């Protein structure tokens, strides 16, 4: 009986050790939590891909160097989570004093649906959320290679559902002026995101 109790205790200890390793010190109990924890630990820098925006301008992503970037990954044909995420992005945008910080931050909604999200489509979509095309831009990479680079950098998984739609990760990504990741935030939490962005901007003034 005593031997069985000792073996049971050892198995529990071993299980806890493996759980701790697998969940990064018990911080990540889902794949999404694991992804976010990994990103915030490694703070990757964005790749200098080329994008085209909703005004038809083509430029390297490095154009935003020196500014904070608040970014989402979307596709305009999404009828579920993307509109909610962009509406919350709009709320955060309105909470920020953009007249004061227009040179310090840019909001970027990046579409991974290159085939359908043309310049005209992005411009129309921008209008739904009052994105001005300057301090808030809708963009998409100009090549599949560049799209893969930025998706891989942030661990964004895009899975076609067979009905011209996609399953994908949904978060706000705050990127520092040096291009490295600052934080990943839940898009549902407008107040917390606003606070994080405002605090970051205070540090540049």
In quaternary terms, these chains amount to single chain
Q: What is the count of distinct domains?
A: 2
Strand content: 15-25%
Query: Count of DSSP E strands?
Result: 9
Instruction: State the end-to-end CA separation.
Output: 67 Å
Give the overall silhouette. Answer: globular
Q: Kindly report the name of the CATH homologous superfamily of the largest domain.
A: Glutaredoxin
- Rounded Rg: 20 Å
N-to-C order of helices and strands: HHEEEHHEHEHEEEEH
Identify the strand order in the major beta sheet.
Answer: 2-1-5-4-3-8-9
Task: Summarize the biggest pleated sheet.
Answer: 7 strands, mixed
CATH class of the largest domain, named: Alpha Beta
Mean pLDDT: 88
CATH architecture of the largest domain: 3-Layer(aba) Sandwich
- In the CATH hierarchy, the third-tier topology of the largest domain is known as Glutaredoxin
Question: What structural class do helix, strand and pairing data support?
Answer: alpha+beta
Estimated helix fraction = 40-55%
Q: Which residue ranges are poorly predicted, with pLDDT under 50 across at least 5 consecutive positions?
A: 7-28
- How many helices does DSSP assign? 7
GO molecular function: metal ion binding
InterPro entries: SCO1/SenC, Thioredoxin-like_sf, Thioredoxin_domain
Family: Belongs to the SCO1/2 family.
Keywords: Copper, Disulfide bond, Metal-binding
């Amino acid at each position: 009986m005593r031997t069985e109790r000792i073996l049971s205790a050892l198995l529990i200890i071993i299980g806890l050790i493996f759980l701790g390793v697998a969940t990064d010190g018990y911080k990540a109990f889902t794949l999404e939590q694991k992804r976010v924890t990994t990103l915030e630990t490694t703070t990757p820098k964005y790749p200098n891909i080329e994008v085209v925006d909703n005004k038809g301008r083509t430029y390297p992503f490095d154009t935003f160097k020196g500014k904070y970037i608040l970014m989402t990954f979307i596709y305009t044909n999404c009828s579920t989570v993307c509109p909610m995420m962009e509406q919350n992005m709009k709320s955060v945008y309105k909470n920020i004093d953009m007249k004061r910080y227009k040179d310090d931050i840019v909001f970027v909604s990046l579409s991974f649906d290159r085939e359908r999200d043309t310049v005209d489509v992005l411009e129309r979509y921008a209008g739904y959320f009052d994105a001005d095309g300057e301090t808030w831009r809708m963009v998409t990479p100009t090549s599949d290679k560049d799209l893969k680079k930025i998706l891989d950098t942030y661990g964004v998984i895009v899975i076609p559902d067979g009905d011209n739609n996609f399953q994908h990760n949904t978060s706000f990504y705050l990127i520092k002026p040096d291009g490295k990741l600052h934080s990943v935030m839940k898009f549902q939490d407008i107040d917390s995101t606003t606070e994080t962005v405002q605090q970051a901007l205070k540090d540049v003034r």
